[in-house]
Design goal:
Helix content is 40%, strand content 11%. It is built from 16 helices and 10 strands.
């Protein structure tokens, strides 16, 4: 007699276990979605066609694999999305830092350890837990490592809705969190999407320093401070330099004013705690860092993405926006002959701005 085939897994029970295992691994929540993203694909293609992605050519490089998970990873039937909160518990008050032009503002997500390796490792451990329970299965882990529509997938998985600022919002936890995905060939039951709860609120649109949010759900990355200070490697448009203020890496304004972030929970991950006092460091001190110091102190941090040249460019802009002082002008003068033409250009702009402010105050 032929041996009887093994019984298939109880996928409903497995889905419940997966969510529990995810919480045990430090994720705040997990959800499961299908791979149908037709509406999001149309939105993405329209956004790209308008050129609103700026110099982020990778957004268009992979064709439709970003919106078609089964083309990116053949056999994918479900996506397990996870959320990890990052709001550092001990960081200085962001509004106080933004209000002091002598200090440097760094987006809250970038104050501690880079999240990519940490989350990828945890997701891989989640995959191993699943495999231990049911045997080998097809899967692939993603954390900003491939063309993935992570916010759309997380919305489909019930982890929140996409707000007018284009970030994901959870009504119980706000928006200060990272997302990661586990693509799988398992026919797991899917979770129900969450309805939007922005209502008539437009605080995020109104607060944006560079008016990068053109309309609800429509972001012009070319004007976004996060894009300009991190992704963009060229000369920051002059008309956008003053609105950048003292933001040297990223921007949180649209999240800071979001009413739902009153429910945001501080992260329990010690790795996300601020390093090297970057939650409110003085601009002049950071501008004095050598490249060796920059590479040493940003090791394992997202700030590395800006590069040393971008770091100096960004701080030069912030110093140009700082209260006029001889100390700021002296600091800028130390970089007037920097080998990088990009740095020299922004230093010259900042010096001219500082000198004009000093003359006006005389």
């Amino acid at each position: 007699m032929a041996a009887m085939s093994a019984m298939p897994p109880d996928y409903a029970a497995l889905a419940r276990d997966i969510k529990q295992w995810a919480r045990e691994l430090g994720f705040a929540a997990a959800g499961i979605s299908d791979v149908e993203l037709e509406e999001d694909e149309r939105h993405l293609e329209g956004w790209l066609a308008e050129g609103l992605h700026g110099a982020m050519d990778y957004m268009a490089r992979h064709g439709r694999k970003r919106s078609r998970p089964a083309e990116l990873q053949p056999g994918t039937r479900r996506v397990i999305s996870v959320r990890m909160d990052y709001l550092p518990a001990q960081a200085r008050d962001p509004w106080q830092v933004l209000g002091d032009g002598e200090l440097a503002y760094v987006a809250r997500y970038a104050l501690g350890r880079d999240y990519h390796k940490l989350m990828r490792s945890r997701l891989q451990r989640l995959a191993e837990r699943i495999q231990a329970a049911i045997g080998p299965f097809g899967h692939r882990v993603f954390v900003d490592s491939a063309p993935v529509l992570e916010k759309a997938l997380a919305r489909h998985a019930g982890l929140g809705w996409i707000g007018k600022h284009t970030l994901l919002i959870d009504r119980r936890a706000g928006s200060y969190f990272f997302l990661g995905e586990l693509y799988t060939d398992l026919p797991l039951p899917v979770d129900a999407p969450v309805g939007a709860h922005c209502g008539s609120c437009r605080r995020c649109l109104d607060v944006c320093p560079t008016q990068a949010i053109l309309a609800p759900y429509r972001l012009d990355a070319r004007r976004c401070i996060a894009y300009l200070t991190i992704e963009f490697k060229g000369s920051i448009p002059k008309e956008l330099r003053a609105p950048i203020g003292n933001r040297i890496f990223g921007c949180d304004d649209c999240q800071l004013v979001c009413p739902w972030n009153k429910f945001a929970q501080p992260s329990v991950e010690r790795d996300f705690a601020p390093r090297h006092g970057l939650d409110g460091a003085r601009l002049i001190e950071l501008f004095a860092w050598s490249e060796e110091t920059f590479l040493h102190r940003t090791e394992g941090m997202a700030i590395r993405r800006a590069g040393y040249e971008g770091w100096l460019r960004n701080i030069a802009v912030a110093l140009g926006n700082a209260p006029a002082s001889a100390a700021v002008r002296a600091a800028l003068a130390t970089r007037m002959e920097h080998p990088s033409a990009l740095v020299r250009e922004h230093v010259a702009w900042a010096l001219e701005r500082q000198q004009a402010a000093a003359r006006a105050a005389a």
